[in-house]
UniProtKB/TrEMBL annotation:
Annotated PANTHER family: GLYCOSYLTRANSFERASE, GLYCOSYLTRANSFERASE 2-LIKE DOMAIN-CONTAINING PROTEIN
Organism: Formosa maritima
Name the UniProt record assigns to this protein: Glycosyltransferase family 2 protein
Keyword annotations from UniProtKB, A to Z: Transferase
Highest taxon above the source species: Bacteria
Residue span(s) of domain Glycosyltransferase 2-like: 24-128
GO-annotated molecular function: transferase activity
One Pfam family cited in the UniProt record for this chain: Glycos_transf_2
Higher taxonomy: Bacteria, Pseudomonadati, Bacteroidota, Flavobacteriia, Flavobacteriales
Amino acid sequence: MNLKELLPTYNSLEKPTEFDYKFTIFTPVYNRADTIHRVFNSLERQTFKDFELLIINDGSKDNSHEVIQELISKSKLNIRYVNNETNRHKMACIVQGINLAKGEFFLPLDSDDECVENALEVFLKIYNNIPLEKQSYISGVTCLCVDQHGNLIDEKFKETPFYSSSFENRLNELSLEEKWGFVKTDILKGVYINPEVFSKGYIPEGIIWNLLSKHQFKTVFTNDIQRIYYLDTGNRISNQNHKNDAFGMAVFSLCILNWFYKDYFWKNPKVFLIRVYSLIRAAIFLDFKRQDYIKALDSKKIKLLVNLCWPFKKMFFKIIG
């Protein structure tokens, strides 16, 4: 397997898509029979109604399928439901959801969370207030979250609206904690994710957001609180395991190192040194050879650094953790 071929790519669509809704609310589900009602309840209270709810059940082992069917039977929402027999993990569901989306804006809402009742109305107002000359390179709008107790998940931005991107936030050491927002569906439809990465554990969604950063798209970040993020869920993605997440961390690290090293290393070397460490740590748990990683890297200096660290990777991991 050529690791470099696993990195996502982007090509803008030749023709804009004709959409049926303003928003597609996308909810992937895996073993969420006890929480999926939160999504339905919060969407049924929305003050803005021009949206569809797209649910993909990713091979759940519990009775999520039956619960979803029951909720749909009682709901007046515009709902499309896909019940995948096999669990392929979240990234595969995201790609599936993007391909199916009929809304202009693609808004993921996890199956154990909820949103405030005017969330869609506020999102649309923020977008419509973006100056027309900027809208072409704006990929979407992102807001803040609170936990189920009303505590702010992340610190507020010093200015709002704040125009930035996922990589710029990382480069400038801004908080990368949980936020929530939509992305233009036509932009996402131009993203290609190699299916070889599916079903290989957790693949960070950041490979998509940083790809958009690479192509100079900006996100509008605001201090509006739009989502209630429950912290007491057992199988949250934030509960990471280095071994189970190794493949995804390797792909994510290669993305950052190849896409941004040349232009941004000296602006914040720590960002790239952390990704070198993450790549080497991931290699402990994967079957690829050192040369596979070296071939996948563009920078000769990063290749040299990986070669130097490679013989000590297990000891390095034990020391740093």
